[in-house]
Amino acid sequence: MSHRIVVLYYSRHGSTRALARQIARGINAISGCEALLRTVPDIPPSAEPPSDPYLTYDELKDCDGLAMGSPVWFGNMAAPLKHFWDASTPLWISGALIDKPACVFTSSSSLHGGQETTLQTMQLPLQHHGMLIVGIPYSEPALHTTQSGGTPYGASHFATVAGQLSTEEKTLAQQLGQRLASLSMRLNPAVKH
After folding, report:
1. What pLDDT score does 162 carry?
2. Is the pTM of the predicted complex or chain greater than 0.70?
3. Where does the Flavodoxin-like domain start and stop, copy by copy (predicted)?
4. Contact of 8 with 40, CB cutoff 8 Å
């Protein structure tokens, strides 16, 4: 039996997927927790198979926590993720996600390309679902020294080369995953899976 933490992401060129994998490493480092890497379909649908399975609403309903990531698209989350949340009304009506911890992460191709606005706007549907938002506290030393990605709102990556994370970006993503998993266990010590 383990706490299942969904790591949901959409990635166009691999950078957001690389962050998702580091967050999953952080989650899996906490004894009793398991990261489920999931993605969403392209809009319009792509002919290429996804790198990870598509998230189902049943998996989301049954998760013990959520990490959600998107590349920066005009300072907001990518349309495929927005589409996924727009269809989540049945979970909202039932209150299935209330009091579950959640965090967000992003990547951009320019340093000031909208990372913080994307992280903040990704939090909005999660808050409407009653989820508890987890950030990165300044007690994490890498947050003070990073020269690329990483914010108190969530993990981030400045994609100078797609998918090649800096040491600080990897550290911050793993720490965010560990924090999310630890809080999940504290909030719901009775595992149901």
Report:
1. 63
2. yes
3. 5-181
4. yes
Domain assignment present for 192 = no
Element counts in the chain: helices (H) and strands (E): 7, 6
Token pair belonging to 3: 């706490």
Distance CA 126, CA 95 (A): 12
Domain span holding position 63: 3-187
Tally of domains in the chain: 1
Q: List the CATH number of the domain containing 90.
A: 3.40.50.360
Instruction: Tell me the average pLDDT across 165-191.
Output: 93
The residue to which tokens 């959600």 are assigned:
68
Under 8 Å between Cβ of 66 and 6? yes
DSSP of 79-90: HHHHHHHHT-HH
Quick one: which of 91, 77, 5 has its CA closest to 40?
Answer: 77
**pLDDT, mean of residues 159-178:** 88
Query: Can you tell me the mean pLDDT for 70-94?
Result: 96
DSSP code per residue over 120-169: HHHHHHHHHTTPEE----TTSTHHHH-SSS-BTTBEEEE-SSTT---HHH
Q: Give the per-residue pLDDT at 190.
A: 76
Residue 8 lies in a domain: yes
